[in-house]
Amino acid sequence: MKDHQFATLAVHAGEAPCKLTGAVDTPIYQSTTFAAADSDEMAALYSGEKPGYMYTRYGNPTVHALEEKVAALEAGEAAQAFATGMAAVSSSILACVKAGDHVVAARSLYGATYNFLNRKLPAMGASTTFVQSTRPEDFEKAIQPNTRLIYFESPSNPILEILDIAVLGAIARKHEITSMMDNTFASPAIQQPLKLGISAVVHSATKYLCGHGDAMGGITIGSRDFIDHLNRDVLRDFGGVMSPFTAWLMLRGIRTLHLRMPAHCANAQKVAEFLFQHPQVERVYYPGLSSHPGHELAKRQMKAFGAVMSFEVKGGYEGGKRVMDAVKIFLRAASLGDTRSLIVHPASTSHRAVPREQREAIGITDGLVRLSVGIEAVEDLVADLDQALK
Ligand SMILES: Cc1ncc(COP(=O)(O)O)c(C=O)c1O
After folding, report:
1. Distance between CA 344 and CA 54 in Å, rounded?
2. Is 98 annotated as catalytic?
3. Is 207 one of the catalytic residues?
4. Pocket test for ligand 1, best of 91, 157, 160 (most atoms within 8 A of CB)
C-alpha cells in the first residue's frame, strides 16, 4: 500500500476483507486476551520472538489496523495508538526523557502538554526550556548537553503559530536528539512532518482523525524501533491503551479524512476573511491570511491552512463572552476537528487558571475566541458570526 495516493491509503491501508468470511469491514476484536496453541507459542509471544497477540494492553488486531492505517498516512514505519491524545503525548515524551534530561519546547502548546512539560517533568527530575519565539535559531540556542528532545506543534494551539518543521528537524538531527511534533491541527491530509525530517509525530486522534466528535484517542507515529520502545518500555507499564471499539470508530472516520479536510479548510478560509474585515474584530490568527506572520512558511509546508482559528473581539473578557453567548450554530464546546463548528473562550475556560500576564505573553488575551470551523454551509457560519458580533 505504501506507494499509493493519500485517498487510497485513507480508504484501504491497514484493512482487508476477512479471509474467513469476506466481510469488508474490520471486525471489532472485543477480546482482552488471545489463546496460544501451546506453551512454546505462548512463551514466544511473550518474549516477542513470535509476532501476534496475547493481551489487548500489549496489542489488539482492530487497534493494529488503525495503527497501520495512520502509519501509512503519516508516511511512518509504525504507529502506537493510545486512549487519548494526552496519553500519546505524555508517553511519547517519556519514551525520550529520563531524570536529568532536558527538553526544548515551543512556547505555544496545548495546555495539558504545556503542564506536562512544565510541572510533571520537573517532578520526575527532568526539565524544559520554552522558547519564547518561533525562530529556529532560538530553539538551537536553547539546546544543552543533556537535551534529548525538541517538542512543538504547528499550527499551535490556540494561537496558530507556524514553526519551520524541516529546519527544526535538521537542528535535532545535527545535535543527535529526537524531534517530536504534534500534528493534530493539520492532520496528515495537510502536512506530513516525518517526510520533512521529524523523528516522531503525535496526534490527538480525538480531533480530525476521528472527525466526528464521538471517540477519544491518541496515536504516535515514527520508526519501527521507536514505536517498539514506546510499546514495550512505556505503554505496557502506563497502560493508556485504546479500546478496540474506539479503534473501529477511528478507522471509519479516517476513511473520509481526505474529503473532510478540504471542506473544513475552505470554510475556515472564508470565515477568517470575514472576521478579518469585521469592525468588531481586533485581530485574527489564521495562517491562511496573508497578514499572518507564518503565512509564507505555512504555504510551503502545508497543503491547506487547517480549520482552527482564533480572533480577538473588541470589548475584552466581556466581549469574548458575549460573542460566545450569541452564536446559534457554533456550539459552545471544547475540542476541535468535529464536523460541527465549535467555539471556546480560553480566558474564561481552558486558561482561566493561568495568570493574565502569563496568558497574554503567549497571545491568549481576554477577548480571544477560538473557532473550530466545521463542514456546515459556510454562508450559515458567516451569518451566525455576523449576528453574534452585532
Ligand atoms: C494540539 C493538541 N494536542 C493534544 C491534545 C490532547 O488530546 P486529548 O484531548 O485527546 O487527550 C489536544 C486536545 O485538545 C490538542 O488540541
Report:
1. 43
2. no
3. yes
4. 157
| Residue pLDDT tens, the chain, 390 long | 766 899 999 999 999 999 999 999 999 999 999 999 999 999 999 988 999 999 999 999 999 999 999 999 999 999 999 999 999 999 999 999 999 999 999 999 998 999 999 999 999 999 999 999 999 999 999 999 999 999 999 999 889 999 999 999 999 999 999 999 999 999 999 999 999 999 999 999 999 999 999 999 999 999 999 999 999 999 999 999 999 999 999 999 999 999 999 999 999 999 999 999 999 999 999 999 999 999 999 999 999 999 999 999 999 999 999 999 999 999 999 999 999 999 999 988 888 877 888 888 888 999 999 999 999 999 999 999 999 999
Are residues 221 and 289 located together in one domain of the fold?
no
Q: Is 53 a catalytic residue?
A: no
Same structural domain, 268 and 330? yes
Tell whether 15 and 135 lie within a shared domain.
yes
Residue 317 sits in the same domain as residue 335: yes
Ligand 1 pocket, residues with Cβ under 6 angstroms: 84-86, 89, 110, 112-113, 153, 157, 182, 184, 204, 206, 216, 218
Which of 254, 276, 309 marks a domain boundary?
254
pTM > 0.85: yes
Q: Ligand 1 atom closest to Cα of 216?
A: 10
Same domain, 62 and 184: yes
Q: Which of 69, 107, 207, 260 is catalytic?
A: 207
182 is catalytic: yes
Q: How far is the CA of 86 from the centre of ligand 1 (A)?
A: 6
CB 111 within 8 A of CB 156: no
Ligand 1 centroid–CA 390 distance in Å is 32
Q: Which domain covers residue 185, as residue numbers?
A: 6-254
- For residue 346, give the CATH number of its domain: 3.90.1150.10
Establish if 1 belongs to a structural domain.
no
